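FYI - complex with adenosine-5'-triphosphate, inputs then prediction.
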Amino acid sequence: MDKLGSNPANRCLLTPLGFLERTATVYGDCPSVVYHSTVYTWAETQCRCLRLASALCSLGISRLDVVSVLAPNIPAMYEMHFGVPMSGAVLNTINIRLDARTISVLLRHSGSKVVFCDILSLPLLHDAISLFPSCHNPPQVIPIEDPYEPNTPTHSYSLTYEKLLEMGDPDFKWIRPESEWDPMILNYTSGTTSAPKGVVHCHRGIFIVTVDSLIDWCVPKQSIYLWTLPMFHTNGWSFTWGMAVMGGTNICLRRVEAVAVFDAINKHKVTHLCGAPVVLNMLSNTPESVRKPLPGPVHVLTAGAPPPAAVLHRTEALGFTVSHGYGLTETAGLTISCAWKGQWNKLPASERARLKSRQGVRTPLMTTIDVIDGTTGQSVKRDGQTMGEIVLQGGCVMLGYLKDEKATKAAIREDGWFYTGDIGVMHPDGYVEIKR
Ligand SMILES: Nc1ncnc2c1ncn2[C@@H]1O[C@H](COP(=O)(O)OP(=O)(O)OP(=O)(O)O)[C@@H](O)[C@H]1O
């Protein structure tokens, strides 16, 4: 027995990039990405991602170079999640709501070689680049035009995203990682509690969190997924790659406004969407006169901030089925979720909402989680009252912070835990709840 082990047939690197090829085989003629009247199939999405990867290589991008993108939820943003790492580069998505100074810092810190930029964010990017010191080479800017936006700024770039794709080879043999630990994603924390830090994730970690999130949320094949969560927010909690696994349809929405969301749900028969509690609040406060009825069951996953029980209650009262999860940029997505039990359905609505507002238990592929006392390092009592820090262990914990060994060591300690910085309690039933 002890002579058996890894061999050339099972020693395969875990990477989410391979999902696309399978999906293009199974669902090649099914819709992959929809934006206004543009509808791509999975065969077309695969082709566009390969073209992107090939064209980036011909621009001189090589392994582990950083390629950034500043864009809302438009088809190009989705394609970047496969096309950029398929060139061997590391994808860095940037929040379009940041100011020019922060974007300038992120571009310099990441050493970004190319920035793809949504046409409406071009002035912001120009401001950011104008803040570069003269000794620092700016990245190459490639605008992403949008035929559905009437008033876009004019520009003088000869190479745009679509022209770049035309240059690319649809049969390109994409660049596979040399190791599953190779960096694939760079995401900056927004810096709400400290200076922005560049969180680096590898192919293996992204593979694990993607599969974990699909299992945890029970996402079925060919779901219709509405992009109400920005893809620049932790890569849309990994559902960018997840929708490819399930052959789902990505409905892209540039602006998350209540009327547009209800229209899209109704028109496309949306089955799934994600959003921070603020999105649920928006949906549940939409006046009845502008709300369209839900076309069928719509599953909503909320995370990113504590959802007030009242917001959960109101959202479910509209017919949405709400799930609640917890995660950080440092874990590439959700690692704790409020696993729901059938017997809780019998409880009064307010009690259900109270239980659902707890963050929950580890997701199936996380190794372990705990709430520990900061001084003793021991687990706190499971009494729902004693506070401690939430700590995690699992395959989707980041590799570390880019060029910041000190912060990496402070977050991932010798005792084997990743310290989240979040304070919570452990309830007697093993469910964690964040307390502030
Ligand atoms: N379900 C949830 N309930 C409560 N808080 C949550 C939940 N999900 C995420 N969070 C909060 O969001 C944080 C992670 O968010 P993110 O990684 O986007 O960080 P950020 O806003 O950039 O943070 P930073 O303050 O570290 O710069 C968690 O550490 C936690 O505080």
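Residues 189-194, 303-306, 326-329, 359, 420, 422, 434 surround adenosine-5'-triphosphate (CB under 6 Å). The chain has a mean pLDDT of 96.
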